[in-house]
Amino acid sequence: MLPFARVTIIGLGLIGSSIARAVQATMPTVRITGHDADADVRERVRQLGFCDDVTDTAGASVVDADLVILCVPVGAMGAVGAEIADDLPADAIVSDVGSSKESVLTALRAVLPSATIIPAHPVAGTENSGPDAGFATLFNGRWCIVTPPEGSEPAAAERIAEFWRRIGANVDVMDPKHHDLVLAVTSHLPHLIAYTIVGTASDMEEVTQSEVIKYSAGGFRDFTRIAASDPTMWRDVFLNNKDAVLEMLQRFTEDLTALQRAIRWGDGDTLFELFTRTRAVRRSIIEQGQDDAKPDFGRSH
Amino acid sequence: MLPFARVTIIGLGLIGSSIARAVQATMPTVRITGHDADADVRERVRQLGFCDDVTDTAGASVVDADLVILCVPVGAMGAVGAEIADDLPADAIVSDVGSSKESVLTALRAVLPSATIIPAHPVAGTENSGPDAGFATLFNGRWCIVTPPEGSEPAAAERIAEFWRRIGANVDVMDPKHHDLVLAVTSHLPHLIAYTIVGTASDMEEVTQSEVIKYSAGGFRDFTRIAASDPTMWRDVFLNNKDAVLEMLQRFTEDLTALQRAIRWGDGDTLFELFTRTRAVRRSIIEQGQDDAKPDFGRSH
Ligand SMILES: NC(=O)c1ccc[n+]([C@@H]2O[C@H](COP(=O)([O-])OP(=O)(O)OC[C@H]3O[C@@H](n4cnc5c(N)ncnc54)[C@H](OP(=O)(O)O)[C@@H]3O)[C@@H](O)[C@H]2O)c1
Ligand SMILES: NC(=O)c1ccc[n+]([C@@H]2O[C@H](COP(=O)([O-])OP(=O)(O)OC[C@H]3O[C@@H](n4cnc5c(N)ncnc54)[C@H](OP(=O)(O)O)[C@@H]3O)[C@@H](O)[C@H]2O)c1
């Protein structure tokens, strides 16, 4: 049996449109309703055809739903929750895909006090955004973390888990606070570092912008990919997972200071020892199917 | 006319073996002699067949050469130079592919005081090493920076430049000091940051190693690729380009501190402004053919 029959997706960008396409591909009988605050996006989604219906208001999109997934930046979750509050069917489950979970849960609870809320976060994406960027296989083999609030009904969380499995993801369950700590390391800190280094490189006086671009294949270009991610989405992530991000940043800075000292004092053994350890992490990621084994991510040469 | 007729490559790993393969593919009449300190590597190279001859000593490999390219870690350049000093023909040009240039030039000059030395650095590579990792198209469309020492013969630098163009690279000429500053930004700092963050993530107590690996598709896995690069090579780079790396690290740390403050004080505008600027850098890199336009580096999903 399908976990849901009438799914509403609010926010039809990379993640929202990928979910819609994946549902269409794997559960073709499910009826998909979509809404986006941006009229141009709604128009484009009507052309692309991965929703059965696109509504002009958030409220109208949920009237008939048994699942509502919010796929907007985390800072907008509360506002969208408020917009659907009056029209949300009592037995619908509200979920989301936000990259931070504690703040989203708090925001949604405040505006939807009696709704069943089961947040989730698919750990998958690209640097692109908008409805054209999505694709049905985005979640294949990636992990989706479901973070049921304390006291929520296990059956509701299981339906959300089953939904994600159907569209290709592996599912893990975690409490929201731990999610935010884990993702601070595996996603938020990497993005912050990438944004920083790309900023640093663009602000140099002695090295021109054109040199930075020409010689970027030395390693720098890797960082520019994630530093090309959506500014609104990422601003919201940092503001909404502040404590965990600052905590991770603190540790990173300490480790960087230790390496700086090793370089300054010519301590090659410390460098060599770390560089050997980090290799093993890459190997595990490839062995567990979380990255391509091909050299250079399989870039064409 | 071909720039060289008898090329010797010392160090037959990723870069050395890629050069040999590229020469074979683009200048098939050139005779290629190879040497590597590691007997297993020599044996493997004999099987792979991209050298016409593989010698057991460095000296024996250069007796007949008009070009000798040193493709060993930058910390080994001086020792290899000393090994070939007695056998190097007077009219041969000595070049190298080291990732730092001032220290290599100093080391080679000390042991080969009367040789014509024209260092170069192809800004191309993958995270793999060894003779099996190389391929003939590695340098296609990438930049090779030639750093002729002051007072050297322009004709010699031009022959080196022509050699690199023949095997697919674009060539730029720079003085060694400026090279070291530019590459500190576009390559050395990115590697240092990547090694650090992978180290930080592996040393967490609250987040398990298995969690870091499972959810690495959130961004972290991108960093593990370059943090899987050869430890010896990278130890040597940091020890040999110390000043420029420490200078760049200092700026990076300042910028990171500013972002940390913006997060702490909830200053979303500063974050948004930076994240918008960094997007433009990515666009230029793609427009100038220095990275794949495909989302997520073209990883298969
Ligand atoms: N990108 C990733 O890699 C990734 C991965 C996992 C989870 N996530 C999470 O997924 C969510 C969506 O990210 P995305 O990458 O899909 O972003 P996206 O491509 O920018 O899509 C977000 C869409 O939501 C719309 N929107 C913004 N505010 C809205 C509102 N109040 N009501 C209705 N629609 C609104 C946006 O319209 P306009 O932009 O035109 O205003 C846009 O079309 C975020 O919470 C993010 O944290 C992202
Ligand atoms: N990898 C890159 O992305 C890249 C890009 C541009 C430039 N470079 C530069 O290219 C050079 C080579 O790097 P690579 O990536 O090709 O490394 P690699 O794959 O590890 O190859 C280096 C080879 O040199 C051998 N070697 C070490 N010391 C030697 C010595 N004293 N005499 C003779 N052979 C010796 C090594 O043998 P063992 O390891 O078995 O001892 C190994 O086979 C370095 O200077 C590096 O900075 C690298």
TrEMBL record, chains A, B:
<dbReference type="GO" id="GO:0070403">
    <property type="term" value="F:NAD+ binding"/>
</dbReference>
<dbReference type="Pfam" id="PF20463">
    <property type="entry name" value="PDH_C"/>
</dbReference>
<dbReference type="InterPro" id="IPR008927">
    <property type="entry name" value="6-PGluconate_DH-like_C_sf"/>
</dbReference>
<keyword id="KW-0028">Amino-acid biosynthesis</keyword>
<dbReference type="GO" id="GO:0006571">
    <property type="term" value="P:tyrosine biosynthetic process"/>
</dbReference>
<keyword id="KW-0520">NAD</keyword>
<dbReference type="InterPro" id="IPR003099">
    <property type="entry name" value="Prephen_DH"/>
</dbReference>
<feature type="signal peptide">
    <location>
        <begin position="1"/>
        <end position="22"/>
    </location>
</feature>
<keyword id="KW-0560">Oxidoreductase</keyword>
<dbReference type="GO" id="GO:0004665">
    <property type="term" value="F:prephenate dehydrogenase (NADP+) activity"/>
</dbReference>
<dbReference type="InterPro" id="IPR036291">
    <property type="entry name" value="NAD(P)-bd_dom_sf"/>
</dbReference>
<keyword id="KW-0827">Tyrosine biosynthesis</keyword>
<dbReference type="GO" id="GO:0008977">
    <property type="term" value="F:prephenate dehydrogenase (NAD+) activity"/>
</dbReference>
<feature type="domain" description="Prephenate/arogenate dehydrogenase">
    <location>
        <begin position="5"/>
        <end position="293"/>
    </location>
</feature>
<comment type="pathway">
    <text>Amino-acid biosynthesis; L-tyrosine biosynthesis; (4-hydroxyphenyl)pyruvate from prephenate (NAD(+) route): step 1/1.</text>
</comment>
<protein>
    <recommendedName>
        <fullName>prephenate dehydrogenase</fullName>
        <ecNumber>1.3.1.12</ecNumber>
    </recommendedName>
</protein>
<keyword id="KW-0732">Signal</keyword>
<comment type="similarity">
    <text>Belongs to the prephenate/arogenate dehydrogenase family.</text>
</comment>
<dbReference type="Pfam" id="PF02153">
    <property type="entry name" value="PDH_N"/>
</dbReference>
<keyword id="KW-0057">Aromatic amino acid biosynthesis</keyword>
<dbReference type="InterPro" id="IPR046826">
    <property type="entry name" value="PDH_N"/>
</dbReference>
<dbReference type="InterPro" id="IPR046825">
    <property type="entry name" value="PDH_C"/>
</dbReference>
<dbReference type="InterPro" id="IPR050812">
    <property type="entry name" value="Preph/Arog_dehydrog"/>
</dbReference>
